Amino acid sequence: MYYSEPEAQLNNRQLYCPRGKVQGGSGSINAMIYMRGQPHDFDDWERAGNRGWGFRDVLPYFKRLESHPAGDTKYHGSKGKIRISSMKEGAHAICRTFVEGARQTGFPLTGDFNGEHYEGAGIYDLNARNGERSSSSFEYLHPALSRKNLRIERNVTVRRVLFDGKRAMGVQASRKGEALQFRAKREVIMSAGAVDSPKLMQLSGLGEHALLAKHGIPVVHELPAVGKNLQDHLCVSFYYRATVKTLNDELRPLFGKVKAALQYLTARKGPLSMSVNQSGGFFKGDTAEAEPNLQLYFNPLSYRIPKSSKAQL
Ligand SMILES: Cc1cc2nc3c(=O)[nH]c(=O)nc-3n(C[C@H](O)[C@H](O)[C@H](O)COP(=O)(O)OP(=O)(O)OC[C@H]3O[C@@H](n4cnc5c(N)ncnc54)[C@H](O)[C@@H]3O)c2cc1C
């Protein structure tokens, strides 16, 4: 439940920036929309000088991680650990109306956002199997839990990386106020996400000298770019009053809640087996754009973002 610092370009508003503080990270709490990066984004990376990051280079890995209902095709794989399911059958009626509306307005439609044509409107795929989240934690970590060379320390917050000169050799951490230290025999891998990794780097003495000095953090290595230039997908929500029943109408009465629960428990179907984001698409904000630069979600319900004080790790 993080909030950003006041954004000068957004009238100093603080934007909601949730992260999953849990095993599996945000992948354990996210909306389960199975969406790869767009091919041209990877090709842009490659053009910027990053060999091995073009779409043709990363596609085999995307195929390898998934078990897709389409089977083995040019764009999909059938033997991976992450189970993909389609929401086409179960999506709320109002989502189909959205897709039909897009068609009538002249926008293209797509049946597979991870296939050949991602531009246009459609119903999203889900990383779920049988109505349950299929995430890196469930599919990769859980089966490996019994390995002798794996130990998970739960409820532990890493406070900083420890260095021997400029070589990372462990981490200092805490669990419910108790100080802990872990030493690495070979390497320290930091995977705390786009928000917490740079924060942890700064706390460890990797960052802009003046900033670290202001907070009394000894500089291990000056890297002024750490913690700067985060670019995220800015999301704007529009709410419309619907003239047909939405999921809010269906789930508000007790009867609706019981029905959805029974549907889920008996058949692993219904709204509780799916994402709140069911339809949407990729569109060009301007016809002059070479590639789509907008992603839409069209949801069958509306909800409020929780107001909280700034969460701290
Ligand atoms: C609400 C929400 C909805 C989303 N919906 C979708 C979606 O539908 N489809 C999609 O593709 N993507 C979605 N995303 C984005 C996607 O989940 C993230 O891009 C992805 O999980 C990022 O992975 P990561 O490993 O980089 O970081 P994270 O998943 O954030 O993992 C970081 C991990 O590090 C841990 N950590 C951080 N700091 C410390 C510390 N100091 N000590 C110990 N541990 C620490 C965290 O607890 C967490 O477990 C969504 C994200 C959110 C938050």
Automatic annotation (TrEMBL):
GO terms for molecular function: choline dehydrogenase activity; flavin adenine dinucleotide binding. Keywords: FAD, Flavoprotein, NAD, Oxidoreductase. InterPro entries: FAD/NAD-bd_sf, GMC_OxRdtase, GMC_OxRdtase_N. The keyword Metal-binding does not apply. Its cofactor is FAD. Its EC number is 1.1.99.1. Residues 193-207 form the Glucose-methanol-choline oxidoreductase N-terminal domain. Belongs to the GMC oxidoreductase family. This is Choline dehydrogenase. It comes from Candidatus Burkholderia verschuerenii.
